[in-house]
Design brief:
This protein has about 80 residues and is mainly beta. It has one domain: SH3 type barrels (Roll), CATH 2.30.30.100. It has 1 helix and 6 strands, in the order αββββββ. The strands form 2 sheets. The protein has a 3-stranded antiparallel sheet, covered by helices on one side. It has a 3-stranded antiparallel sheet with strand order 3-4-5, with no helix packed on it. Strand 3 and strand 4 form a beta hairpin. The radius of gyration is 12 Å and the shape is globular.
């Protein structure tokens, strides 16, 4: 996987939530574009978790797939 692949998902308008899967079977949920950032060279992904506000650092070479989220979206009234 390349950083440019992730950037394409981030640039979509309107933004569509997506999931990033790694070779160790971890899944990173991206429900908002501000939850992830790429290093300048596109080799490192920084992911802020929504559940417990942790910062996860992922080597982009370990990403095996990116796919649209299949989650229910609830909008505020």
């Amino acid at each position: 996987m390349r950083g440019s692949d992730i950037k394409e998902f981030l640039k979509r308008q309107p933004f569509v939530p997506f999931d990033i899967k790694t070779d160790d079977a971890r899944v990173y949920l991206v429900d908002h574009p501000e939850f992830i950032h790429l290093s300048r060279d596109g080799k490192v992904l920084y992911h802020n978790t929504l559940e417990d506000d942790r910062l996860m650092v992922v080597d982009v070479s370990h990403i095996v797939s990116i796919e649209d989220a299949n989650r229910l979206r609830i909008s505020a009234p």
